[in-house]
Every structure is written in structure tokens, then in C-alpha cells.
Amino acid sequence: MSARLRAYALKYEVLFFSLLFLLQRFSHIEKIFSGIGFAPPGVDPFYRMHRVRLLLENHLHFQIFDPYLNFPFGAKTPWTPGMEYLVALICKICNFSDTKDIAIVSILSVPFFSLPLILCVKPVVSRFTDAMSVRVMVYLAFTFLPVFIFFSSLGRFDHHMFEASLPLFLFILFYSDIKRIQKVIGWSVFFGLSWFFWPHAWLLHFMIIPLALYERRSIDQLLLLGLGFLGASILQAFFLWWWAPENFWSGNMSTFGISWWAPLTAFFIGLFFLEIYYNDQRRGWKKLPYRLFIVGVVSLLVFRASILAVLQSMFGGLLANSGTLGNTEETVSAFTFIMKHGMKTEHVHVFVLPFLMAYFWIKKEYRSYILFMTIPMLLYLFQIRFMTIFYPLTIILFLFGLYLSIEHGLCLKLKNQYLRNSLYIFCVLCLAFPLRSKLGHAIPNKYKLIHHVKKGSQFIDEEIKRRSYDRLQSGIGARWMFGHWIVFYANAPVVTSPFQGESALDTGYLFYSRDLKTYEEYIKKYPIKYLMLVNTPYEHAQQFHFYHPDQKDVLEYDQQKNQLVVKDAFRDLFVSEFLYDNAVKYQQSAYGPWRVVYASFQKIGLENDFSDIKIFERVQGAFVKIRSKRQNLRLLARIDIAPQEVFEYEPKPIQHDDGYVVFRIAYGQYRYAGVDFSGEYKILDENNTVLKTIVVEENDVLSGNSIQVEME
After folding, report:
1. Separation CA 39–CA 444 (nearest Å)
2. What's the rounded Cα separation, in Å, for the pair 455 and 447?
3. How far apart are CA 89 and CA 496, in angstroms?
4. Counting beta carbons within 10 angstroms of the beta carbon of residue 197, is it exposed (0 to 12), middle (13 to 18) or buried (19 or more)?
5. How many other C-beta atoms are found inside a 10 Å radius of the C-beta of residue 440?
6. In this structure, is the dihedral angle defined by the CA atoms of residues 262, 268, 270 and 276, taken in order, positive or negative?
7. Are 683 and 709 in contact (CB under 8 A)?
8. Strand-pair partners of 639
9. Which of 590, 499, 580, 575 is nearest to 542 (CA)?
10. Do residues 390 and 381 lie in contact, with contact meaning Cβ atoms separated by under 8 Å?
11. What is the pLDDT of the chain when averaged over all its residues?
């Protein structure tokens, strides 16, 4: 490469690969805004977009309490709101407030929020080598590797891109050659603002410790770090007071949310670095830093309850062995994931990485970098959800290894510079060739029912508007996994908090319970108006075993019919009684009868002939009072439910009062959203003779009206 061409390449390399990075992310944009619409992958992006909407509704004032979670109680939202603020500000400037507009801005913003990953490559790699070939391979890896496409593609509106880039910025800032006061301000602002964009950014506080102690030859670095951490603790405490004054004054501590945990860890780590610095200055660094020890003991005694609770929650969250968290695959270790899915996963490198790190350590190569990777690696070995913190660091280390193997192995005898460069290009092409199919590849939401849940949630939103219901009183019960989707599209509160927890477990126990008592206790605690259920017996069977691990299988495969068949044990469950029997058992409940108000027309799979999604509404119910000398009168209606279900609705009489037979009914005249009912009820005698036909209006059911029928 000529000197002039190399100069241009060095000058514009960041710009070139930034454009390539964005081009890859936007190459499938037509797939997103066409057809049935785009659903971002996962679940968390939907709650993030919901928070953008809340910010716009509250004039950019962030509220830590979210009334849309954990109905009817509401919940404190745990995430720091930096990313949502940026999108809300863009929407505010553009005068966007509609759900669709918020989704579009959020989806389009992700690649730009991920772009700092490319900006970090040159300063990080150049710390160890000036070889442009290494930087090129890292650029291409960050641009085309599936794991990076996953969290930085259009629609992945979550904090994962900050998880990936902030550790690299931390590494850059540590080695940056700037004035002392600028370094202190830089540390303070970095740790303060990183927490603003990433709720678990307090992990960065601990990531810097091994690197700083290893590089303690630069004594000033410890002093500047100590002062910077103290400044960061003040800035974080200010954010805490600004976002959540009740948490600020109550001394709340939680590793999961906005609390004193981040400011206090920054404060104590700052004291730790200052203590080490002053001990080093007195050449007594081997002595016990007694002042820090005394402060730690006093703090433990004063805040022992809070500190122990935080440590327990941290330990429980890392092991993920309880609650609904134990039912999610992202919480398993890399080794467990490989054992379950085989060697064809992106996690197989964990078998090679320890040997590579040991080799570099023995060769005294990249030791500081390896120490910097220690905490992310340990977290990743516990749970694969930490892959976004760990993978950028890992990929760089692997490409360092590739560079050394070429430079000190294959290229020793290649004196010709063009041949050496050709070999590097060949290696880069070998890395890129298997990934060619990822060019222009969209990563949609792979859950097969996402669009059904979306349409069902949009129906609830329209229904609330159409009937002028109180939105915050129109709670929705559903599987916890759907909570984010429902909150965003229905714009209504959900019981099964998207962040799991007690209400999610309670709802799970309800779905897979067998007795009316569980239902009554649940409705008393969570007075929901809507219940969304999915008709996927196989998925229900998996959940059933989570709540009833000692029970036998509740499904069997019928080879002749080529479909799954539910057994009687499954038909006894609450969820089955709703899906298959349309909640007849619960019509006479003291808390109001249920009716189907939405049924999806589409069918996925061959499991049975019922709708994939059914939404039930709890109503007042109309009272039909029939006075007649005849005995054993019956009330019968035919209700058509999509796609091909005919529901014979026959409510049971609830009482005989002053010569009247009283029925409480859940259905009125209704032709909407996959439910077709004329409102006609037939009154039959014990011989099935039709004595009379009456029509019940929709408003009768909603208002609890009484309809009197006089008969001979």
C-alpha cells in the first residue's frame, strides 16, 4: 500500500466502517415497513417504547412509578431512562405522539446508538498494535457477526448496545493521555452518565479495579480514579434525587433499579483507590488500608439489613434458581446452553478462550486486557445474558491471537509486503465468507404469536376508547412474557408485570390451577377486566411442568391426526376451561361473568381447531327473569367464534325468586373481532321445545340490567 493511500485509509477508516456498519443495519429496512409490520425481537424493547410514550405524556418528566405495571398496584420502574429521553426528545421536536410514530423513531435509532462500538475500535486496538489489518478484522466482526447484528439491528431498542460499548469506552478513558483535572472530570462524567443509559453500569465500577491495580505503576492514575469515583458518586446521587426523591430519602438499595447502590459503590471504590494511593506514596502499600476497613465495618453495621438484602438478591439473580426468572433460557450458563443446543451455537468459544488467555498470560501479552475481561467473563459463565458485555472484548482478543499467529508464524518468511497484505485480506475474507448470508438479514421477533398478541392488544386499546372505559382500571391478565407487548400496544395496565415477580407467579398459578378458590383469591387481589389466553397446548404443557413438576404429561401426539391432543388432566386446568369451555364454570362467580370479546381468525400449527388468541372480558352481566308456571326452563344461545367454533351457551339458573327463574348471562348482541352473536336467546322447556325468543342488547350486559319475561 502506498504511503498516500495508507494516509487516506488511516484518516477515513472510522468514517468508512461507520457507513458500512449503518448500511448493514439499514439494508433490510424495506422488510420492516412492509407487509404485516415489524415486531422488534424480544420483549424489553416494547416496554422501552412504552416509557417513551409516558415521557411524552408527562412533558419529558420521568416518573419512577409506573401505574401500567403490576395492576392494580402499579410498580416502580427499575430502568434508568437515558435512552428513552433521547428518543422522546426527538419525538418532541418532530411533534410525534402516536404509538406508531414512537415505534418508528425507536426502531430507527438503534443503529445510531450502536455506532460508538465502531468508534471504539481504533483507540482500543491501537493500544496494543498499529497493524491496520487487525483493526479491519475487528471492524468487520462488529459489523457482520450475528451476535452484534442481534443487539444493534433495527428494532432492538434496549440497553444492550450500551453494555457493549461502555466497557470499551472505560478502557479508552483509562489509558487516555489528558490533563489531571480533565481526567477527574472525565471519570466523574463517564460513571455518572453511563448509569443514566445502562441500569447495571455500576458493574463498570468493579471492572476497572483489576486493571487499575495491575497498572499501579502509574501512581497518579489511582489518585485520579479515586477523585473521579467520588465525583461520580455525587453525580449519581444527584440523578437519584432527581429521578426518585422517595428512593433518595428512604435510602433504598437495589442492584436492579434506581437506588443508592450505584452511588455508594462508586463512593467506596473511590475511597479504596485513594487509600491504596496514599499507602503507595508512603511505600506501605502492603499494609492493611485500615481507614477503609473501619469505614466498611461501620457502614456494614449501620446498613447491614439493606446490604445483606442487596447481596442476597444479587446472588439469587445470578443463580436464577427461583421464580419466573428460572424459566427463561437467557439465565443459563454458556456450558448449559451448549449442552442443550449442541456445538452449533455462538457460545462454543468458551472452550477455547481459557487456553488463549493462559497462552497470552504466559507470553506476557495483553495481560492488562485479560484482567479487564475478568469480571465480564465470570458473569458470562454464569449467564449468557451477559454476552453483550463480554463479546466485544472477546472478539478483539481472538483477533489479536489471529494476528500473532500470522505475524509470528505464517508471515515470518514472507518479506514481500504485498504478499503479507494479501494473506491478511484472505483471512478477513475467510472470516466474512460464512457471514455473507447475514447481509440484509432482518431479525424480527421469532415468537410465532407476536402478531396475534399485537392485534389482540390493539383491539383492547380500541375497545377502551370505544366504550370510554377508565384506562387505568382496565387491567389485563396474561402470561408474563406478553406483558411488554400488551403494555405498549394496548396502552393499558397488565397484572403479570413484564419484570416478572410475584404477580407473574400468581398469574401462572392461576392458569394452571384446578379449583375455583384460586380464581376467587386471584380476582380479589387482581381485579382484572380482560384476560388474554393463547391456544398453544404444547407451550402450556411446558409451563404446566414448571408449576407442577411432579405431574405426568398432559399432552400426547396423535400420529393419525398429526396433532397434539390434550388429556383430561389438562382439561381440568383453569386455562383449559377458558379456552375450550369459554369460562362457563365461572359465569356465576361473585366477581362477575366472563365472555369472549376477541378471537383471532388465523391459525398456526395443527394443535387444534380453536383460535390462537382469545380475549375474555369480565362484565356485570344481564339478569334475565322469567316468570312461568313451567318447570326446568332453559336458556340457550348460539355464538360463533372464529375460526370455526360454535359455542352453545347455556347458563344455569342462579335462583328462583318470587315465581321468577333468574339467569345471569354474559353475552349480549355482539358482532365484532371474531365473535358473532345476534343477541337471541331461546327459552326452552324440559322437552327442548322453544317457548319464546328474546334479544339481549350489549348495554344490558355491560350495565347489569334486568330483563323480565312473562310467560304462561
Report:
1. 6
2. 14
3. 30
4. buried
5. 13
6. negative
7. yes
8. 647
9. 575
10. no
11. 80
396 in Cβ contact with 124 (< 8 Å):
yes
The answer on pLDDT for 638 being more than 70 is yes
**C-alpha cell read off for 193:** 452518565
Place of cell 453483550: 388
Q: Grid coordinates representing 316?
A: 439469587
H-helix or E-strand spanning residue 654 = strand 653-657
Sequence letter at residue 348: V
Q: Helix-strand-coil percent breakdown of the chain, rounded to 5?
A: 55, 10, 30
pLDDT tens figures, 310-327:
665 555 555 555 544 545
What is the C-alpha end-to-end distance of the chain, expressed in Å? Answer: 104
Closest CA to 191 of 158, 159, 220, 227: 227
Distance CA 676, CA 649 (A): 13
Helices (DSSP H) in 43-179: which residue ranges?
44-57, 82-94, 99-114, 116-119, 121-125, 132-144, 146-152, 160-175
* 282 residue type, one letter: R
The full length of the chain comes to 712
Rounded Cα distance between 303 and 297, Å, is: 10
Using CA atoms, how far residue 95 sits from 47, 89, 90, 106, 265, in Å, is 21, 10, 8, 14, 40
Degrees (nearest 5) of the Cα angle 538, 540, 546?
Answer: 115
SS3 709: strand
Residue type, 322: S
pLDDT tens for 398-417 read 888 877 777 665 555 555 66
